[in-house]
User: Fold this.
Amino acid sequence: MTASKANPDTACPKCGAAVEYGAHFCGECGTRVEHVAPLLALAPERTPSPVADPVALGNKSYSKARSVDKLVGRTLNGRYLIEKKIGEGGFGAVFKGKQLATGREVALKILHPHNVGDATVVARFRREAEACSKLRDPHTVITYDFDETEDGVLFLAMELLSGKSLQQLQKAEGTFAPLRVLDILDQVGQALGEAHRLGIVHRDMKPENVMIETRNGQDHVKVLDFGIAKILSGDAARGPALTAIGQTVGTLEFMSPEQLRGKALDGRSDIYALGMMTFEMLTGQLPFKNAKSSTEVIEFHLHKQAPAPSQMRDDLKIPAFVDEVVLKMVAKKPEDRHANVEEMRDHIAKVISDADGAVKRKEIMRVAAVVGGLLLVVATAVYFLSR
Ligand SMILES: Nc1ncnc2c1ncn2[C@@H]1O[C@H](COP(=O)(O)OP(=O)(O)OP(=O)(O)O)[C@@H](O)[C@H]1O
Ligand SMILES: [Mg+2]
Assistant:
């Protein structure tokens, strides 16, 4: 679309190309687009959803509540007791709770009051929760139930995890050994693979959304919040999630170029975000560590080549085969990344097996050299003794 045809509210101020709602940058020339600022004003979906009841929403007093904290002690639809707040994000808060019928401990994710006054959000919440409840992978948190109370509290009951988030673990332990990182990537990849096959793109992969439990002394990964970002930001072409509001940098750190441009997303966008997370696990830093503003972070995602993790921390002796995997994951163009998570996991398996092979070959050469040396000594001794 040319400048003259584009709506001035949705046109790039530099080249005049049409810019979709939610995009931070012009897809044509990469110029920052200031007018798209209030993400809350993203164009809502036009088709009314059969599951939402906009009239009823008018009576839902929860949407006027100031915070979620007063929910502690309350029972939701006679089924779940809210016991204690675990944490809070841009979208809602997570509480420890109990399923009254069974006594089972659960985690209850409850939407912030300001999100539930919008029928579209409520409809999307139901749709996404329904999609997530189909996910069965052992590395995806189990969604048990989702519902809404009469006064408008929207909640999701899920498996209560006992581990730490990847973010907490990184804070506590610093950098991870490369082989541990590859194992975590493989497990996250398994969870993403199932979701991608069902058409669910995560859209908000970040260390806070990956929990790590310890099972038999090994890391057991669980991925959280599939598709949650979409509930607030809408479909693929609607750009960054509303979770970005007030904590834009937090989400921007892992966001793919196509997501920043508000383009349609597929699983390769999650691979990019996972690649960014990998830099942090390996080196304790993100590849744009010198960026001074969110604009510079975005500029990095759109245009700057990431350095190899081994260059960022040459003290850690990160193997070249790990660089190879990570740099492919964070290629700027989706077509230069792994085509899907299965390909990414195969790549990981191959570099590990090649590295094992190289270690074994080295060991065989070492043993051969020792045996050869011994034989030489014996042969020399036999020669001198027989004279
Ligand atoms: N099923 C769960 N079991 C145990 N703890 C959980 C569970 N789900 C989430 N948490 C904890 O609750 C915290 C808050 O999660 P929440 O998803 O609300 O915020 P976030 O991940 O930081 O941001 P966002 O809203 O963008 O996802 C998480 O960091 C995590 O530690
Ligand atoms: Mg989360």
About this structure: The radius of gyration is 26 Å. The pocket of magnesium ion (ligand 2) is lined by residues 89, 208-209, 224-225 (CB under 6 Å). The longest helix spans residues 341-385.
